[in-house]
């Protein structure tokens, strides 16, 4: 394309074109100003509003007379139910994130050893759920797990393994299964990027020195991919912890988590002050947990390095 | 594999078997639910069964008679196109500043540009709802577009930035050596190389906006619900294969988008 220097290609640019180029490629911060302003107005200001609404009385969407009050925050923090649900959200997220890691790591590892069409097919399998709506995938689990005609019950009944249909839908097992599957690509992708480009010489050295493949995998490959594991774990934990669709649809009407509470207070009960206080709790606890995961991950990485 | 052939012990074989078994399970887990939904959508009877008792397009035709659903599809298409435009207009220039700009605190600046990715969709949704109420701005199509654009902006920024950072500087040099000015190089060398990334970013933004529930539930207009919100309510109250039919169409749409992305930048590049 560049080899032929056609007369058309060397025609001078119009002054307008020149100014566009200077604006975009001039090396300044200017091209980002619209995006910055946009985020300040439509992200930062709304989140500031959200954080403020937990500390004032809200009456039908407008700020009430009272001014600053701690009553909503205190109300939320002194409610044992809130703490129970936060605890439940935490455990559901930890268990489902651990499950995604167990399922994701082999896939990412296998990807590095595949070539050609198999490699492409694997990538399509990983990416396709990512582009399918989370709602559609949740619906799929309702169909698979749900009721007497659900796929799981049908199969087990036909095979004669059970006599009565199992109640899987509307339990925490269903929530766990759904969350794990829906968030699986988020875990696979960061691992895949790191594992497929890793330096194989360390593994070869370990094998040459007589270590078995299993030992090499756990003592060399896994520790070397720790940063990606930590990043994936933190990301999947955060999306699991704040997911309210899956618990609502797969957990049934009376299954609640802290994220479900935020939704219900805001949209169903319309108690915006309490909703905002709960959302503040959700957001800050999520940050604390993610921070703890990253810190623990770094500590673990260092520990395994020292031990080596 | 180079190097001396290793003795493979029984333990290693077991471990390898485990690894393969987990990989296969994982792939089944990823793909099977979508395939099951597609199979169910062809059910001729009025309830869900797998495998379906026959083959019919009944539920696809039934879709055409649900005016509310058709309306919501139109709303979603309209919204997604607008979100895509907003994100491209804001995102591409921002990506330029993020990679080629030279100014203090650039790392913090880039982190801020990608920050919406760290925010749960629900938080963006509720925050927009509250802020809108505070400035007396009702949930509407416009509000949905504005809030979804916050959510989707990082997708465009990230993919265009990655492409810009990966451009071969030799091409720019070659262009300069052939006598092109700096800005001619920009228009005839840099921008054309960027087009696939912008295209892929646009496709991904479109599908994210089209599928999004977590933001849309809070900021959409009650009288003109987008498809994901409509589906959210439908899933809870309807048990016919109708939802499977809509879902299959959505799966089809996402496959088309994936093909577009694969042609434009390659799936592998996009995965990061």
UniProtKB/TrEMBL annotation, chain A:
Residues 86-295 form the ABC transmembrane type-1 domain. One of its GO terms (biological process) is transmembrane transport. It is found in: Cell membrane. Gene3D superfamilies: MetI-like. It is a multi-pass membrane protein. Its main location: membrane. GO terms for cellular component: plasma membrane. Signal peptide: none annotated. PANTHER family: ABC TRANSPORTER PERMEASE PROTEIN, INNER MEMBRANE ABC TRANSPORTER PERMEASE PROTEIN YDCU-RELATED-RELATED. This is Putative spermidine/putrescine transport system permease protein.
UniProtKB/TrEMBL annotation, chain B:
It is a multi-pass membrane protein. Belongs to the binding-protein-dependent transport system permease family. Keywords: Cell inner membrane, Cell membrane, Membrane, Transmembrane, Transmembrane helix, Transport. It is found in: Cell inner membrane; Cell membrane. The keyword Lipid biosynthesis does not apply. It comes from the Bacteria. Residues 73-261 form the ABC transmembrane type-1 domain. GO terms for cellular component: plasma membrane. SUPFAM superfamilies: MetI-like. Its main location: membrane. It comes from Ancylobacter tetraedralis. GO terms for biological process: transmembrane transport. This is Putative spermidine/putrescine transport system permease protein. PANTHER family: INNER MEMBRANE ABC TRANSPORTER PERMEASE PROTEIN YDCV. The chain crosses the membrane at residues 20-40, 75-97, 117-135, 142-161, 242-262.
């Amino acid at each position: 394309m560049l080899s032929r220097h056609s007369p058309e290609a060397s025609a001078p640019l119009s002054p307008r074109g020149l100014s566009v180029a200077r604006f975009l490629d001039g090396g300044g911060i200017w091209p980002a100003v619209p995006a910055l302003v946009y985020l300040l107005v439509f992200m930062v200001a709304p989140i500031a509003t959200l954080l403020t609404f937990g500390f004032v009385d809200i009456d039908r969407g407008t700020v009430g007379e009272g001014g600053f009050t701690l009553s909503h925050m205190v109300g939320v923090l002194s409610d044992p139910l809130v703490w129970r649900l936060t605890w439940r959200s935490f455990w559901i997220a930890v268990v489902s994130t651990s499950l995604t890691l167990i399922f994701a790591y082999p896939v990412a590892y296998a990807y590095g050893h595949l070539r050609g069409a198999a490699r492409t097919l694997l990538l399509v399998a990983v990416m396709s759920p990512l582009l399918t709506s989370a709602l559609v995938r949740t619906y799929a689990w309702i169909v698979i797990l749900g009721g007497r005609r659900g796929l799981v019950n049908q199969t087990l009944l036909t095979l004669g393994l059970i006599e009565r249909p199992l109640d899987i839908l509307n339990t925490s097992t269903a929530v766990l299964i759904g969350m794990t599957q829906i968030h699986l690509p988020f875990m696979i992708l960061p691992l895949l990027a790191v594992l497929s480009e890793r330096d194989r010489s360390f593994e070869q050295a370990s094998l040459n020195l007589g270590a078995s493949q299993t030992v090499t995998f756990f003592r060399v490959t896994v520790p070397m991919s720790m940063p990606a594991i930590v990043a994936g774990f933190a990301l999947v934990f955060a999306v699991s912890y704040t997911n309210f669709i899956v618990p609502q649809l797969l957990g049934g009407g009376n299954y609640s988590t802290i994220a479900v509470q935020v939704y219900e207070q805001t949209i169903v009960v319309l108690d915006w002050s309490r909703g905002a206080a709960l959302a503040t709790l959700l957001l800050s606890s999520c940050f604390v947990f993610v921070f703890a995961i990253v810190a623990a991950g770094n500590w673990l990485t260092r520990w395994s390095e020292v031990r080596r | 594999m180079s190097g001396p052939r290793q003795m493979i012990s029984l333990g290693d074989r077991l471990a390898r078997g485990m690894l393969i078994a987990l990989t296969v399970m994982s792939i089944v887990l990823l793909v099977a639910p979508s395939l099951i939904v597609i199979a169910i959508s062809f059910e001729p009877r009025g309830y869900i069964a797998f495998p379906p008792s026959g083959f019919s397009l009944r539920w696809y035709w039934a879709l055409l008679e649900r005016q509310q659903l058709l309306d919501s599809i139109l709303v979603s298409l309209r919204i997604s196109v607008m979100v895509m435009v907003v994100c491209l207009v804001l995102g591409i220039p921002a990506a330029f500043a993020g990679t080629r700009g030279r100014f203090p605190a650039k790392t913090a600046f880039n982190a801020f540009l990608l920050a919406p990715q760290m925010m749960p969709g629900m938080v963006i949704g509720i925050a927009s709802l509250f802020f809108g109420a505070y400035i007396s701005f009702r949930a509407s199509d416009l509000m949905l577009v504005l809030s979804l654009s916050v959510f989707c902006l990082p997708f465009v920024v990230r993919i265009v930035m990655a492409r810009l950072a990966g451009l071969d500087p030799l091409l720019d040099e070659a262009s300069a050596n052939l006598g092109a000015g700096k800005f001619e190089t920009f228009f005839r060398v840099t921008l054309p190389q960027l087009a696939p990334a912008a295209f892929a970013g646009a496709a991904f933004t479109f599908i994210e906006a089209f599928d999004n529930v977590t933001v849309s539930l809070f900021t959409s207009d009650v009288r003109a619900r987008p498809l994901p919100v409509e589906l959210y309510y439908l899933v809870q109250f309807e048990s016919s294969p109708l939802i499977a039919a809509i879902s299959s169409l959505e799966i089809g749409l996402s496959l088309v988008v994936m093909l577009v992305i694969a042609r434009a930048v390659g799936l592998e590049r996009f995965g990061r």
